Amino acid sequence: MNKDANWNNRYEETQEDYIDNYMAKNLYILQANTLNQAEPEGKSNHEQGSHVALVPQGVTYPNSDYNTTDEKWFWQSPDTPE
Fold first, then answer.
1. DSSP letters of 31-79?
2. I want to staple 49 with a disulfide (CB 3.0 to 4.6 A). Which of 7, 21, 29, 35 is the partner?
3. Contact in structure between 34 and 49 (CB atoms under 8 Å)
4. pLDDT tens digits for 12-29?
5. Rounded average pLDDT over 1-10
6. 48-71: per-residue pLDDT in tens?
7. Domain boundaries, the chain
8. Distance in angstroms (rounded) separating the CA atoms of residues 57 and 21
9. How many other CB atoms are found less than 10 A from the CB of residue 40?
């Protein structure tokens, strides 16, 4: 790891912390909303869907409503509100 490659030069990152923990979620976890709509995130006055994360086997992503390893189920078309 490049010792200068850290957040605002505040502290050094180890490869385990940066690659294995932080970046793994950006490289291997995909998240989608179960409703196909404008403004699917945040507070709104219309119905909000659930967030589903496609994760590697044995991984749990705590920032999602549901976790799945089933790729076919994850990539199906979302529901569209009527």
1. EEESB--SS-SS--SS----EEEE--TT---TTSSEEE--HHHHTSPPB
2. 35
3. yes
4. 777 777 777 777 767 788
5. 68
6. 778 899 998 888 889 899 999 999
7. 7-74
8. 16
9. 16
Q: Which of 46, 44, 52, 50 is nearest to 69 (CA)?
A: 52
Locate 43 and state its tokens.
Answer: 């507070």
Find, among 59, 52, 46, the residue nearest to 20 by Cα.
Answer: 59
pTM of the predicted model over 0.90 = no
The DSSP letter of residue 7 is G
Residue tagged 């909303």 (tokens): 33
DSSP 2: -
8 Å CB contact between 51 and 32: yes
